[in-house]
Amino acid sequence: MPSDTLTIVDNRTGREYSLPIVDGAIRATDLAQISAAEGDGGLLSYDPAFLNTSACRSAITYIDGDVGILRYRGYPIEQVAEQATFLETAYLLLEGELPTAAQLEAWEEDVRKHTYVHTNVTKFLEGFRYDAHPMGTLLGAVGALSTFYPDAKDIADPENRKLQRVRLIAKIPTIAAFAFRHSRGLPYVFPRNDLSYIGNFVNMTFEIGGRHEPNPVLQRALEILLILHADHEQNCSTSAVRSVGSSHVDPFSAVSAGVAALFGPLHGGANEQVLRMINEIGNVKNVPKFIESVKSGEGGRLMGFGHRVYKSYDPRAKIVKKLADEVFKVVGVDKDLEIALELERIALSDDYFTSRKLYPNVDFYTGLIYRSMAFPTDFFTVLFAIGRMPG
Ligand code: ACO
């Protein structure tokens, strides 16, 4: 009997089966031969949350959740966040290796060329109510891009796929900034291709009357936050894109499903919920009572805590905490930092959280940083979506 097999004895029938093990996995479809009665369809594996099911083999991102390791194409996240730009990171994820200087220049130029959106997109955005959630606007607008680029349907052509990839990465900051301006009743600011990827996004978002004074510390902090969000294996939104894309629909339609998945409060929407939770707590004095309400199940979950994969700590959360210090040095300490620190302190010393391996995740502190950069709460998840686009 080959050693890389799994022997199963079905105690209902006494029959024995041998299933091949490849890459540390058995094929769920191999279970179908295990049948107890004619016509029962064979044995199924039940795993609604994909807790122990792989749907692909990926060489892009590596995570070891037990020890808190995250690598993009073999590079530790700490190194990428410290040394790379967002577009270099995107190139690394897409192409498998960091770009040479010439490759980077060509890639940046490619992205720059595609930052504009058809002016009809602005008309389309006008249809949204003034108080539309910007994630709803973003998800609608990304899906709508499929109607502007019907050529994107030709998914069998690798060059065509590359073009749509560039379009998505280039246009999402433009659409995100437009969603912001729509919610403020401000005129749209079109891309300025003399600026960097991040600089251009910030300018399109905040420029008033042709003026915006960028702060390099805040821009780099935003860039690092986007890098930290750029990819994360088979998470909820990536799985949504893969599942929808498996129908061979165009990439804009598939990615709009990913944006929808990211919108949810248990996934990308958690950064917004953390701030709403902190606002509700209101004062550091109320933290112990709030923690008790979480433990009793009455207060909902401690948002920004816990992760499907990280069961020791989220390595991104460590970087985010350090970034928060740098940002607060520039703009002053956020008024609610004290509440967040106290929530973290109590939770990390409380058996309810430690026994369930609940630690701060990437979203616990990002909201406070985004707020310090003058982004409104309902825009936080849009920032996540810009970061996640290469992934
Ligand atoms: N606060 C309080 N209790 C929690 C939390 C939390 N944040 N997270 C999990 N638990 C508890 C559950 O109630 C459950 O307790 P029980 O065993 O007594 O029933 C136990 O911990 C396990 O919970 P699961 O939901 O099975 O854990 P899972 O790993 O499936 O969930 C998730 C991961 C969804 C992220 C969860 O921890 C959560 O809801 N966190 C808050 C939302 C959040 O911050 N999401 C962002 C994640 S990062 C990202 O998506 C970018």
Word description of this protein:
By secondary structure, the protein is mostly helical. 51% of the residues lie in helices and 6% in strands. The chain has 17 helices and five strands. The chain has helices at residues 77-83, 86-95, 101-113, 119-126, 134-148, 158-184, 197-206, 216-228, 236-245, 251-263, 270-281, 287-296, 315-331, 337-348, 351-355, 363-372, 380-388; strands spanning 5-10, 15-20, 61-64, 69-72, 75-76. The chain has a three-stranded antiparallel β-sheet. It has a two-stranded antiparallel ribbon with strand order 1-2. The chain is globular and about 80 Å long. The structure holds acetyl coenzyme *A (ACO). Acetyl coenzyme *A binds at residues 266-268, 270, 294, 301-308, 356, 358, 361-363.
Number of strands: 5
N- to C-terminal distance: 41 Å
State the low-pLDDT regions, or none. none
Provide the residue-averaged pLDDT: 94
Question: What percent of residues adopt helix (DSSP H or I)?
Answer: 40-55%
Principal-axes geometry comes out as globular
Helix-strand category: mainly alpha
- Over the alpha carbons, how many angstroms does the gyration radius reach? 23 Å
The distinct bound ligands, ions and cofactors come out as:
acetyl coenzyme *A
H and E string: EEEEEHHHHHHHHHHHHHHHHH
Largest sheet: 3 strands, antiparallel
What fraction of residues sit in β-strands?
A: 5-15%
Count of helix runs: 17
Please list the strands of the largest sheet in the order they lie side by side.
3-4-5
Features:
two-stranded antiparallel sheet, 17 helices, single chain, binds acetyl coenzyme *A, 391 residues, mainly alpha, three-stranded antiparallel β-sheet
